[in-house]
Input
Amino acid sequence: MAISKEPIKAFTNQQLSIAPLLVFRIVFGLVLAYGMFRFWYFDWIEKLYLEPQFHFSYLGFEWVKPFGDWTYLLFILCGISAIGVAVGFWYRISASLLFLSFTYIELMDKTTYLNHYYFVSMVAFILIFLPAAKGLSADAGWSLKGLEQRISRAYYLPLWALVSLVYFYAGLAKLNSDWLLHAQPLKLWLPGAYDLPLLGPYLEKEWVAFFFSWAGAAFDLSAPFLLWFRKTRPYALFLVVVFHLLTRLLFPIGLFPLIMVLGAFTFLDHRYHQRLLIFIGRIIPKGLFKVRFKLPLMEFKAKQSFQWFFGLFIIFQLVWPWRYLAYPGELFWHEQGFRFSWRVMLMEKAGYASFTIVDARDKQSFRINNADYLSSFQEKQMSFQPDFILEYAHYLAELHRQKFGHDDVEVYADVQVALNGRSSQPFIDKSCNLAAEKRGYSPKKWILPFNDTIYGI
Amino acid sequence: MLGALMVLSLSCVEEDKGDAAVQDNFDRQALLSFWADEIIIPAYENYSEELGQFDSLVQSYRAKQLQSDLIALKAQFQKAYIAWQWVSIYEIGPAESRGLRNYSNVYPCDTAELLGLASSANYNLSLPSTFDVQGWPAVDYLLFGPNDLSVSPELRQYLSDLSQRLLNLSQATLQDWKNSYRNSFVANAGSSADASVNKLINDFVYHYEKELRAGKIGIPAGVFSGMPLSNRAEAYYNGDLSKQLFLESLEAHRRFFSGLSYDSLNRGPSLKAYLDYLQIEENGTLLSTRIEDQFDLVKQVASSLDSNLAKAATDQTTTMLQTFDALQQNVIWMKVDMMQALNVRVDYVDADGD
Output
């Protein structure tokens, strides 16, 4: 039985106002430029990328490294291309450079991995292919006439789908016994914000942790649906703003709330975006505008190839977070398949890792002082993530092979990890020579089993 | 999340009824007051006093070179070095800004460099490059090393300069604590990364891990080198003091954890009380009990060690390593379990989370 493609075609090809996309492009570019400024301002470029002598790499991206003081140029390039996107100057090139430079920065060291950086990378990638500078831009001219451009719904779909997916998958990930039945890790985190005005004194109460856990899960799961339907959309946007404001108040969460709110507002009716742009157009001095509009007013239709490509892109995004099912054991414990899956603020995990080097030729052994090789941030992240532990063990092995002048170097790790308020327990098989273990996607057998059960997804 | 708004508005209403809800919060301000008034400031007072006596003996010996002064000086060295162990943990505020620990107790002392500087009579002890030619390790070398002070005016001068510098640093730190820092320390009772509770817990755990576990035991025992390094022991030249210094430091950590005042007469709020307040336990045993028992175990394992840890490092390596392992367990319980339970972030680059 063949399913008729016509309704789908009519849906994706329907022409919508360009205004929401213009607002998104402008603000997204400005936020990222500010993000790069923030990196420099807080001295993170130095601390995260230049000071450490060793960097943790993603599998297959070992070649992506900081390059000394020139790394600053990379951040400048990223900031400039973000502004290029915001003002729509040589748009396709700016957007491509933004995607490449931002992604390069994120790949330099996985110590700094955050879900929202991944989200930004994906959005920057999508933006390359959108007609987001066909109005109100340096390329198209600044005339408000540009607001009348129309584009296929297909151009909005990848953005909308991605935003929806982030919420929905973040909600699914919360459907586990730690989150719902023990209010962990919020029970650990919320009391830390006890000095917040008004809310502070309540944050230590158990019922508040439970309330926030359940409400958070309900919000994440329902937000995409509330956003998609016109009738519920205003409520959804209100909730989005309240939710992200709260997370901003309670946790050191950087630009994430801003970016998600921005993403959610692409759902908002185009008339609001138009009014906003017209209002801004009025208060900006007239001289700044070239009245002449460079482009003919037209409809931008998404090509078949675009639709196919992003259809596959969304399917990939839907499937990829489930790869953890291929690994036995508790995901929160072994973290195989944890990243790139919108598992946001789900666990409080800390560890202590102590490495022993064995010179197998003369049977000498000694421990490593991690501070000699890693920044405190790197050490903290390494001490509970198995792929970090293995990569670091390999680095230590290589260093000592050179030091000893032979290859009989063994590395053993004694690691204790505490998860979501449980007592610390042994994490890695102490008798396993990590120098001989390969990096890769196959299950890491040297991770000891979690001695508790977390039920749920 | 609408409910969250309701919480917000409810909280406004209940605020007027009185603050019954606030009372069951752990009183961090009281914790900080107790730390400042009953532990840290008394420790600095005692240290400054012992150091003052030490310095007057140094000055007297420099002026008259009486053998009796030298003997008294050596005895007072022990008292002052012990008193140092009780302030070394609290590298925060005025101590942190002065780099007190680095200028007071970096060992081993670079003796060749020290002798060169002393004879050149041209040195500036406020430079970071001179960490390892000053402080107690350098005094230890001058008093108990191979040199005869009675025939060397340069070394006596150098000793006097070391003593004066230690005294100035400790007095200035104590004055700052008393004048203004005490109040800002107690007032900074918030939850941010640079609030007092967070910072001092980080400093405390850092000191336990790096200075006590690694510095006093692990490094001389050869944990990080594969072979014992006797000369890396504390008080290497007056070796018989080293185990006592270790035990004093251990006791200082223990009392801080359990909330015993410096004179051990008063009990007060503490990390132990904080953990118990949050009811942190596993299988019926409180985490605080496990940590306290572990402190006892360390003491017990170390009891058979020679009073000279440089000697113990080579002659009793196994016992030294066992002491290290016993110490290590509490690093895990304090740095992982305790800090997670208290929601204290391990000191790191203050980057974003998600």
Observations:
- The longest strand of chain B covers residues 281-282.
- Chain B has two domains: 26-189, 190-346.
- Confidence is low (pLDDT under 50) at residues 1-24 of chain B.
